[in-house]
Write a structure and sequence with these properties.
alpha/beta; Aldehyde Dehydrogenase, Chain A, domain 1; 7-stranded mixed sheet; 6-stranded mixed sheet; 23 strands; binds nicotinamide-adenine-dinucleotide
Length: about 475
């Protein structure tokens, strides 16, 4: 396995794989063992200046490549990603911890993202507006916004990079992307697919380093015209305010605390099985992971019993072990966060139905956990757990559950399960979230808009909205 990972990982600046010049390095760790597997250098300001200059000249080149040609190159990159799924997924599991099967799905899903943007980039249409005067043409042109600064997180290191890189490139933009320092190897392999597909030098630049230093430097650079960040609400607010100071457009994909509403009219066992699978995927480190389970009172006991059984039965282990059903958390911070969150909930009266403890001393393993009797003032009721903890809550009727589901400042994903069409309509209208999925897990596809409201951020990363995020509107009025 070690041979698949490089000792010292490179950055990609102006079409070359280079070592950064700051002289500072950090270890990259295997979350299953908490042992170092590689080293990663930090970008200096001089490195960032090179990346900015490269992104500017890359933009000047790439914007002139026709949408038709860009599409061909991007589709080739998607084919290369698919052909290398084993290799990229292996690195992803090694550095992030998720099950190899999940890593493969992430890589294949990322190829779908590239391909969808490759197609949609050919449809960045403008329009003609009827003129008031004879001989005048009123035209709306969609132009690439310019060099982009992207910041992607460690929970889906390949998919989150895919969304930002593909959207930017399909629109004709260049990008400097700072991928996560904790999981740098899989984005490197991913970016190589674009390089080998023929993306010109400077169009993609991949850097790593101290996140706050890089984001402040890039956001304030006049060359950078658009910011795209995925991560926590506090960091998102900080970056949005920096973007505001420099009047930069931004897309903010921040955290959530997804409610799931299970009504009495559904068959509980099947829904519990589906939801347990969703909840513990990637050890719960998913911004759209269901976290607050509102179950209607007649079904509550049966649902909780089934869900708890399923959680108890999940084999936790190394992501490469075919028997594992959940891998480690990505870093020791998450294990500490689980412990403090649980301690707080228990001190306030919550009952642990199953789980609640770290597993072993090596690696970041934590038990799939189910909590009941959680009072509203417990931290877990208003802070995103971002880990394998599910909170079970009982409800009586639709109005009451909608109020409780909407009571937090977040609004990313939400879910409901009901057979009643009127309830489904009421819930889809009433949930104050950017995404509502009813009776199945139907969000986060390349062709559908992905994004939140309230403190979960603004802007979208999928669908036509995801392409528009990288386009600016130019109005041209032409007489003669
Ligand atoms: P964190 O808030 O320190 O970091 C979150 C992400 O933002 C990381 O990828 C980090 O590298 C990046 N980051 C941090 N400061 C930055 C800065 N000044 N400029 C640019 N990027 C910066 O927390 P963490 O411990 O890494 O992650 C835990 C929390 O982050 C979770 O509770 C979760 O809410 C959130 N998170 C959300 C997502 C998501 O998909 N929305 C992904 C990962 C983490």
């Amino acid at each position: 396995m070690q041979r698949q990972y490089r000792d010292t990982l490179p950055h990609y600046i102006n079409g070359a794989w280079v070592q950064p010049t700051s002289g500072d390095y950090q270890d990259v760790m295997n979350p299953s063992t908490n042992t170092p597997i590689g080293k990663l250098g930090h970008a200096s300001k001089a490195d960032l200046d090179k990346a900015i200059a490269a992104a500017q000249s890359g933009f000047n080149t790439w914007r002139r490549v026709s949408a038709f040609e860009r599409s061909k190159i991007l589709r080739k990159a998607a084919d290369l990603v698919r052909a290398r799924v084993e290799q990229i997924a292996t690195i992803l599991t090694f550095e992030q911890g998720k099950l190899l099967a999940e890593a493969k799905l992430e890589v294949m899903g990322s190829a779908d993202v590239i391909e969808w943007f490759a197609e949609e980039g050919r449809r960045a249409y403008g329009r003609i507006i009827p003129a008031r005067a004879d001989g005048v043409r009123n035209m709306v042109l969609m132009e690439p916004v310019g060099p982009v600064a992207g910041f992607s997180p460690w929970n889906f290191p390949v998919l989150q990079a895919a969304r930002k890189i593909s959207g930017a490139l399909a629109a004709g933009c260049s990008i400097i992307i700072k991928c996560p320092e904790e999981t740098p190897g899989s984005p490197i392999e991913f970016v190589k697919c674009f390089e080998e597909a023929g993306v010109p030098a400077g169009v993609i630049n991949l850097v790593y380093g101290v996140p706050a230093v890089i984001s402040e430097y890039l956001i304030s650079s006049p060359a950078i015209r658009k910011i795209s960040f995925t991560g926590s609400v506090p960091v998102g607010k900080h970056l949005a305010s920096l973007a505001g100071q420099h009047m930069k457009r931004s897309t903010m994909e921040l955290g959530g605390h997804a409610p799931v509403l299970v009504f009495d009219d559904v068959e509980t066992d099947g829904i519990a099985t589906l939801l347990a699978g969703m909840k513990y995927r990637n050890a719960g480190q998913v911004c759209v992971s269901p976290t607050r389970f509102f179950v209607q009172e007649r079904s509550y006991d049966k649902f909780v019993a089934k869900f708890t059984d399923l959680a108890r039965g999940i084999a936790v282990g190394d992501g490469f072990d075919p028997n594992s059903k959940m891998g480690p958390l990505a870093n020791p911070r998450r294990v500490n966060a689980m412990e403090t969150t649980l301690l707080d909930a228990q001190e306030k009266g919550a009952k642990v139905e199953t789980g609640g403890k770290r597993i072993g001393n090596a690696g970041n393993f934590f038990e799939p956990t189910v909590l009941t009797n959680v009072p509203t003032h417990a931290r877990i009721m208003h802070e995103e757990p971002f880990g394998p903890i599910a909170v079970m809550l009982r409800f009586k009727d639709t109005d009451e559950v909608l109020e409780r589901a909407n009571s937090l400042p977040f609004g990313l994903a939400s879910y409901a399960f009901t057979k009643d069409a009127k309830t489904a309509t009421k819930v889809s209208d009433g949930l104050d979230h950017g995404m509502v999925s009813i009776n199945h897990f139907g969000i986060a596809l390349p062709e559908t808009p992905f994004g939140g409201v309230k403190e979960s951020g603004y802007g979208h990363e999928g669908g036509i909205e995801g392409l528009n995020a990288y386009l600016s509107t130019k109005f041209v009025s032409h007489l003669g």
